């Protein structure tokens, strides 16, 4: 019994010395998260990149025709496949009206 008490007393300081979790780990750094999200998004085409502008215009026209014809699913699918998330959101907003 005395040995168990002695071991318990010896263990208490080592448990107290164990480092408590850092208080900063309990919070979300929204600024860093926003930076990571911005870095993950594709960059807008440069003003001189006419080919990218034409591709974006053609995609918008194709998706717009699909949505105007009443096929919202196909329009959303085409925008998703192209990776154009603002266009996907626009299709969803329009079709939910």
Q: Which parts are unreliable, with pLDDT below 50 for 5 consecutive residues or more?
A: none
What is the helix/strand order? HHHHH
The rough form would be described as: elongated
The profile of the biggest β sheet is: none
**Rg from C-alpha positions?**
28 Å
- The SS-based structural class is mainly alpha
Mean pLDDT: 78
How many strands in all?
A: 0
Helix content: over 70%
Give the percentage of residues in beta strands.
Answer: under 5%
Give the termini distance in whole angstroms.
Answer: 75 Å
Number of helices, counting only DSSP H or I runs of 4 residues or more: 5
Short description:
With 97 residues, this protein is an all-alpha fold. It has five helices and no strands. It has a domain at 52-97.
Give a written overview of the molecule:
By secondary structure, the protein is mostly helical. It has a domain at 52-97. Helices cover 70% and strands 0% of the residues. It contains five helices and no strands. Helix 3 (50-68) runs antiparallel to helix 4 (72-82). The N and C termini lie far apart (75 Å).
Question: How would you summarize the topology of this molecule?
Answer:
Blueprint: H1 2-17, H2 30-40, H3 50-68, H4 72-82, H5 85-95
Q: What are the defining features of this structure?
A:
97 residues; mainly alpha; elongated
